[in-house]
Amino acid sequence: MRNISKGAEPKSLTKHRCSTNSDYGNYSEKDELRISLVKEQRGLCCYCMQRIRPNVEGMKIEHWQCQSRFPQRQLDYSNLLGACLGCEGQEPNKQHCDTRKGDRDLTYNPANPDHNVESMLKFLGDGTIASEDPDFYREIIEVLNLNEGILIKNRKAVLDVFLKEVLSANLSSAKLEKELKKWRGDGSSSDLPEFCQVIIYYLDRKIRTLSNRKN
Q1: What secondary structure does DSSP assign to 116-137, as a single string?
Q2: Measured CA distances, 132 to 42, 197, 209 (Å)
Q3: Which of 49, 153, 160, 199 has the CA that lies 20 to 30 A from 27?
């Protein structure tokens, strides 16, 4: 999970919301909405950071607060996120992200800048995700299932390759800063690498450690 900066909502959504008897079900321009969500999320699922694509086969449109209990937010763009398919159709213990979440609540929204979810997450060397916030950690495990086996394996694989190719080179602080900007996608709007926040977390810690040594 990473912080998401919401952009302007699609014009079709604005127009539809102003029409009579409008709801999410009769909003016909969902393809435009998918394109907008994928672009602002840099091609990554709002929860697990796997690749999503702006079509029915490549993503789901997630309502952070569910439609059944928060119908007033069903067309609220700040409540809409792009999620992966989350192993839809498989047994429940394999499902994750929106597919696993269903209508359950989450304490924090990755698209709410006041929540700053990045500051509450830890990406550990074994591929798991942790948080010192007990409620958030419970939701990571029970609601989103972000420590599902395949997700752990994929995060660890990304980290292992990175540690072998980059950190083993004993780079200077300046080069680590450059690497950090690359993984954050600074100065670009293109898709980010899958699970990029795992590497960003480790680079940030590495840079802070080197800075502390100098002081």
Answers
A1: -GGGG-EE-TTS-EE-SSHHHH
A2: 27, 17, 20
A3: 49
